[in-house]
Amino acid sequence: MRILGIDPALRVSGFGVIEVQGQRLQYIASGTIETGGSEISVPLRLATLYAGIREVVETYQPNAAAMEQVFLNVNPKSTLLLGQARGAAIASLVSDGLPMVEFSALEVKKAIVGSGRASKQQVQEMVKRLLKLNKITGTDASDALAVAICAAHHRELSERLQQFR
C-alpha cells in the first residue's frame, strides 16, 4: 500500500509518500508545495495548493492519504488561513475518492517517537531512522512523512479503506 502524508499550510505544505509492505516501510518521495507569500491572494494560493496536491497524487498514485488535524493558534487569523489550506488539501485528495484519515499532532508524535511531547527534531530523527534515510529536506516534508508513517501503523486506515472497496 502506498500512503501520502500531507502537512498542510498556506505558504509551504509538506508531502511525503511511503510504501508499506507488512511491517516494512519504504521511502518513495517527499517535498514541499510552495504557494507564495502574502503578495499573492489567498484564493490563488489555495488554487496552487490544490493543483500541487493533485500533481503529487497523479505522480505517485497513493492508495490512501493522511493529514494532521488543525490545532488552534493564539492568532485567529492564522487558524482560519490554516483551515482554508486544509480544506483545499482535503478537497484535492478526496475529489477522486482517495481514502483519507486524520490524526492529531499528539497521535503522530506518539506513533513516531513514543511520546506526544516529542520535539520536531526528535520526530525528524525517528522518521530518518524508520525510513533509513541520511537526511530529509525540511521539517514540512519530515512532518508529512511522519503523518504517513502514523497512518501506516494505525488500524483506522485499514477500516477506512474497507469503506472504499
SSE map:
Layout: E1 2-7, E2 12-21, E3 24-34, H1 42-60, E4 64-68, H2 76-94, E5 100-103, H3 105-113, H4 120-130, H5 139-152, H6 155-163
Parallel strand pairs: 1-4, 4-5
Antiparallel strand pairs: 1-2, 2-3
Helix pairs in contact: 1-2, 3-5, 4-5
Could you name the key traits of this structure?
5-stranded mixed beta sheet; alpha/beta; 165 residues; 6 helices; single chain
Tell me what the structure shows.
The protein has a 5-stranded mixed beta sheet, sandwiched between helices. The two termini are 14 Å apart. It has 165 residues and is of the alpha/beta class. Helix content is 49%, strand content 22%. The mean pLDDT is 90.
Short précis:
The protein has 165 residues and is α/β, with parallel strands linked by helices. 49% of the residues lie in helices and 22% in strands.
Fraction of residues in H or I helices: 40-55%
The computed structural class is alpha/beta
Number of helices: 6
Q: Which segments are poorly predicted (pLDDT under 50) over 5 or more consecutive residues?
A: none
Mean pLDDT: 90
Radius of gyration: 15 Å
Largest sheet: 5 strands, mixed
Count every beta strand, where a strand is a DSSP E run of 2 or more residues. Answer: 5
The neighbouring-strand order within the major sheet is 3-2-1-4-5
The H/E string reads EEEHEHEHHHH
Q: What is the oligomeric state here?
A: single chain
- Hey, roughly how much beta strand do the residues contain? 15-25%
The coarse silhouette is globular
Distance between the termini: 14 Å
